[in-house]
Amino acid sequence: MAERAALEELVKLQGERVRGLKQQKASAELIEEEVAKLLKLKAQLGPDESKQKFVLKTPKGTRDYSPRQMAVREKVFDVIIRCFKRHGAEVIDTPVFELKETLMGKYGEDSKLIYDLKDQGGELLSLRYDLTVPFARYLAMNKLTNIKRYHIAKVYRRDNPAMTRGRYREFYQCDFDIAGNFDPMIPDAECLKIMCEILSSLQIGDFLVKVNDRRILDGMFAICGVSDSKFRTICSSVDKLDKVTTQVSWEEVKNEMVGEKGLAPEVADRIGDYVQQHGGVSLVEQLLQDPKLSQNKQALEGLGDLKLLFEYLTLFGIDDKISFDLSLARGLDYYTGVIYEAVLLQTPAQAGEEPLGVGSVAAGGRYDGLVGMFDPKGRKVPCVGLSIGVERIFSIVEQRLEALEEKIRTTETQVLVASAQKKLLEERLKLVSELWDAGIKAELLYKKNPKLLNQLQYCEEAGIPLVAIIGEQELKDGVIKLRSVTSREEVDVRREDLVEEIKRRTGQPLCIC
Amino acid sequence: MVVREKILDLVISCFKRHGAKGMDTPAFELKETLTEKYGEDSGLMYDLKDQGGELLSLRYDLTVPFARYLAMNKVKKMKRYHVGKVWRRESPTIVQGRYREFCQCDFDIAGQFDPMIPDAECLKIMCEILSGLQLGDFLIKVNDRRIVDGMFAVCGVPESKFRAICSSIDKLDKMAWKDVRHEMVVKKGLAPEVADRIGDYVQCHGGVSLVEQMFQDPRLSQNKQALEGLGDLKLLFEYLTLFGIADKISFDLSLARGLDYYTGVIYEAVLLQTPTQAGEEPLNVGSVAAGGRYDGLVGMFDPKGHKVPCVGLSIGVERIFYIVEQRMKTKGEKVRTTETQVFVATPQKNFLQERLKLIAELWDSGIKAEMLYKNNPKLLTQLHYCESTGIPLVVIIGEQELKEGVIKIRSVASREEVAIKRENFVAEIQKRLSES
């Protein structure tokens, strides 16, 4: 027993060591080594029969959705899906896991955050990390050259969860993408139009969409003197400047680039001149005239596309929501052209609150090379798309509803079938069945002889608007008492007219089409 | 996907019609949560690799997560539905719609209530859904775990062989009695006379009259468990009659059902092949919905063992998708994959800007609209796009229309065109769409 306790202690210490290394962002090899040690120790421990302690929880970084959260989620998805459909998108779905090889090498530094499935003798599988790589795989696999599709599903990342800030290991993504070779910037403009429509419809406050271009970034780095090998890592430093949640200043970013990533200070300064700029189409014009930037072919391409984009955005009526921001870098490797990110703006009224309403809620960009990585002949299919970060939106919408004191109903029941006296179960069963068969949403209490008061209370708690009360006298008279829960007004309705009367009151069409 | 969506919509509206609340759980659970809940089937779970954290497995069904949710949140009463994917490492037979990743639609009522009312509602829901899907005639077989166990006891099956014999009986819907008998006697070591006694019972099926008959059965009526089961079934049939669905229900003594956790009534819905479909591939997909009462599951999760009685059902939507898709193929039915109502087109070059302005007006008014992502598309190409994707209306802007301050609205089906003043065109479109 003592041996076991000692072993358990070692496992605990090793586990802490691994966690510590991960927090310090130690090298991948070191972490792997220590994890291997941990697994060996655990294996020695073996199964423990004495421990009957049962842990009732969901896995770390995941959560159940309660009925209340489902109701909020449904409202949000409705708005989003309606918008996607308005723009003519088809819907697809893909499996939750992909072949491990499909996902390998697509996510750069983030690859270590992928969940793998155990090798159980079949194919090696991993849980999908986003919906974009599966989409590219789908296109290549089915030899599709153009499609406009949306996909709403959960994705999985073994990140450090921060549940209060809406960062989970299992979370929903709502993606919309346009694949195909088209005339420039029209689909890109439509993606931005969609982002604006969705964020406006959700009524979660004012927002801003920042836009930049991978080619402008790369061109800017080149003329500032950043060596090619440092591009991606300098990119991720610059990206931090843009994150409102971390409130990082230019000084801190510069220190990271110079101090940690070995960039020459004058190069950092040159970058600083650019990345602190943001504005409208006039900034694009300005940069097209910039003596250094205009020497760089890549940057010019990017600027030219942004100019065209702004023209279309103006025609779409959303240019006032768009800001060309040179500090927008965005993590993922596969972007090749325009990139964008929508952030919520904190209003003065919310100044005292937890800054939950601030931060990025949607993002996307153009990625022309991804499908080619899957195609055996390397055939490219240009793609542009966007992803809505709904988890944060769920929390914001739920907060808003609570603030407005709007009751969130978790069911849609319209009528409760109740009885005023005992021994009326048969009648209730018959009546509720009639209502269901007519397409009316109805319930009854699962009690043979429920008290009327309890039935009425049930309606008030659940927000059910109508009660159909069966009573001995009413039965003889061939009527049902229809009662409004809020007004408490009752009226006798003939049994044969009840369905119609309920439909009229609940605004339902008379036929179930 | 469109077929899937329509079917899921129908299922979910039925669940909502009965006052169920939606809920969702993660795709994976702690391995220890799922271990030892599925009996023989436990080996078919997908495990996640041990990457130094918690040991996890993909959920095998939606019922065990539900029981975990109830215990975790100390919920005593809940009527819920859950539509989600589950994962099983079975031998996939895609032809019959059996996958390793598939969607389940579950409805369950948890709580201590007066007997058989929630159970009857579950069967009512199954009937509403299967009728609503218009898959043809169907039958719901009903039995009770206590009747099955009681029957085994009076026939002389040793308790240790209960589950094994149960799974043999379960095959009677696919195998003939003599083959099942063979399996029980030869493979599972059951005495032949015991097998024959079982045979007398399991080949019986009927309505409430069979329940009455079994009450009178000399052997079965000696068994307390069986009597409880028969009593509940009698009450159930009363309620099903009041619900108007008794004609769809068959008390079938051969219904055994695999999962360990059932404690009372069990049921399974099967499609009946009609004569007109005789020419089709015999789609023997097995059951399309099933369920039962499981009063002990939540107690397995509660630290103090507190029980929460549950009854529920699961709709096998994958098999239904498969059947509906096959039917559509044979009928050659085409289904639209988008809901676009209006297409914005132009007959001339250099009208991109006008199209972008027009389409933004339509979107901002909530109208579903598309245009080609080409600066200068040909009119024919645009009209062809509408025809192939089923878009009913086109708005056309060109030089002439611009001069006259109008938009042409064209019906794709009739090819009729009419000119509408620019400022009225959205209203006109909305009028046409609401009329159709």
Describe this structure in words.
The complex is a heterodimer of chains A (513) and B (436). With 513 residues, chain A is α+β, with helices and mostly antiparallel strands. In chain A, 39% of the residues are buried. The longest helix of chain A has 22 residues, at 2-23. In chain A, the strands form three sheets. A nine-stranded mixed sheet of chain A has the order 1-4-5-11-10-9-6-8-7. In chain A, strands 13-12-14-15-16 form a five-stranded mixed sheet, sandwiched between helices. The termini of chain A are far apart. The radius of gyration of chain A is 29 Å and the shape is globular. Chain A has helices at residues 2-23, 28-45, 67-86, 100-103, 132-141, 186-201, 214-224, 231-242, 250-260, 265-275, 281-289, 297-315, 370-374, 390-403, 425-437, 452-462, 472-477, 498-506; strands at 90-91, 97-99, 125-127, 147-156, 170-179, 207-213, 278-279, 322-325, 338-344, 359-366, 383-388, 415-419, 442-443, 466-470, 479-484, 490-494. Chain B is an alpha+beta fold and 436 residues long. Chain B folds into two domains: 1-331, Bira Bifunctional Protein, Domain 2 (BirA Bifunctional Protein, domain 2, 2-Layer Sandwich); 342-435, Rossmann fold, CATH 3.40.50.800. Helix content of chain B is 40%, strand content 19%. Chain B is built from 16 helices and 16 strands. A nine-stranded mixed sheet of chain B has the order 1-4-5-11-10-9-6-8-7. Chain B is elongated, with a radius of gyration of 28 Å. Chains A and B meet through helix 2, helix 3, strand 1, helix 6 and helix 15 of A and helix 1, strand 1, strand 2, helix 3 and strand 4 of B.
